[in-house]
Write a structure and sequence with these properties.
Organism: Photobacterium galatheae
Number of strands: 14
Helix content: 25-40%
Pfam families: IMPDH
Bound molecules: guanosine-5'-monophosphate
Distance between the termini: 44 Å
Catalytic activity: IMP + NH4(+) + NADP(+) = GMP + NADPH + 2 H(+)
Strand content: 15-25%
Structural class: alpha/beta
Number of domains: 1
CATH architecture: Alpha-Beta Barrel
Subunit structure: Homotetramer.
Radius of gyration: 19 Å
Keywords: Metal-binding, NADP, Oxidoreductase, Potassium
Length: 347
């Protein structure tokens, strides 16, 4: 047994130190980033925020709404190829450019990904997603997908340490998805005791990825726009959001009326709810590692995404970053033991 003594940090453990700046207004801040991806060589430009591939977040409707802001959506993997055909048929190249096709690592997943990607050349991103990215099987699967799709942008995860980021990039991933346990409806840390505070995971994994010319997605744990900024400040190239985008009209979750109020169901993709819906229940060898919650219904996602983007722009003005790309270079985090003043609760 070994213990690593240096304390790892979450978003709640830091704040940005403000810095002198010549920026007069947040409207001067550019959130669009341009990337050229390592293996595929493909170029992409957009706002590097991604709606999570959860079935009450990453819907086709969410993709259409967020693409207007050049924001991405990782479409959840429970749509059929026919559903995809309808979506591809009705949507512009601009929307498809802001979409990731999610997949697991089974043979059936591989075939389905091939069928979906064959629907349109405008589909650019493949998101290979398993809960435990430390499985050797993931590395082999990434190699297989890279061989089949040499010119597509491949993301793989989830992992939380630099060694595995490097292994996945060397196997063919352009982007590595980072996060084990920070999610709003995740119970992995409680059920297994495994995890890594998300800000430190981002800082360490970004360093490993950037050293090899790869990128990372900070996935999970953001509870407010300030956390999204902290993820970018820590070095995340993309930030993935589940809970912050759940509960909206476009999230396509189940609406529940209770005591005269309207709620939307939101659940982890390894929760009992998800497994009942998609896999005929929780297999007897495993435990559910996600929870189910009812969120007050929030209406269209438009205001929320503007609020998040406005918050990140504002962070950039506080530290003097004219572009999102500069935010991490302009970031000094101070370690703190307080965040907001909660005397009247959160908005
Ligand atoms: P959030 O933004 O809600 O904090 O986190 C979203 C992320 O939580 C997702 O992108 C995914 O990585 C993770 N996640 C989603 N469902 C589950 C689950 O059932 N169990 C665990 N461990 N993580 C989940």
């Amino acid at each position: 047994m070994r213990i690593e003594q240096d304390l790892k940090l979450g978003f709640k453990d830091v704040l940005f130190r403000p810095k002198r700046s010549t920026l007069k207004s947040r409207s001067q801040v550019e959130l669009t980033r341009d990337f050229t991806f390592k293996h595929s060589g493909r170029q992409w430009s957009g706002v590097p925020i991604i709606a999570a591939n959860m079935d009450s977040v990453g819907s086709f409707d969410m993709a259409a709404a967020l693409a207007k802001h050049h924001v991405m959506t990782a479409i959840h993997k429970h749509y059929s190829v026919d559903d995809w055909a309808g979506f591809v048929h009705n949507h512009s190249a601009e929307v498809l450019k802001h979409v990731m096709v999610s997949t697991g690592t089974s043979e059936a997943d591989f075939q389905k990904t091939k069928d979906i990607m064959a629907l349109s050349d405008d589909l650019l991103f493949i998101c290979i997603d398993i809960a435990n990215g430390y499985s050797e099987h993931l590395v082999e699967y990434v190699e297989k997908v890279r061989t089949a799709f040499p010119d597509k942008v491949i993301s793989a995860g989830n992992v939380v340490t630099g060694d595995m980021v490097e292994e996945l990039i060397l196997a063919g991933a352009d982007i590595v998805k980072v996060g084990i346990g920070p999610g709003s409806v995740c119970t992995t840390r409680v059920k297994t005791g495994v995890g890594y505070p998300q800000l430190s995971a981002i800082i360490e994994c970004a360093d490993a990825a950037h050293g090899l010319g790869g990128q990372i997605i900070g996935d999970g744990g953001c509870t407010c726009a300030g956390d999204v900024s902290k993820a970018f400040g820590g070095g995340a190239d993309f930030v993935m959001l589940g809970g912050m985008l759940a509960g909206h009209e476009e999230s396509n979750g189940e609406i529940v009326e209770k005591d005269g109020k309207t709620y939307m169901k939101f659940y982890g993709m390894s929760s009992q709810s998800a497994m009942d819906k998609h896999s005929g229940g929780v297999a007897n060898y495993r435990a559910a590692e996600g929870k189910t919650v009812l969120l007050p219904y929030r209406g269209p996602v438009e205001n929320t995404i503007q609020d998040i983007m406005g918050g990140v722009r504002s962070t950039c003005t506080y530290v003097g970053a004219a572009k999102l790309k500069e935010l991490t270079k302009r970031t000094t985090f101070i370690r703190v033991q307080e965040q907001e003043n909660n005397v009247y609760g959160r908005e």
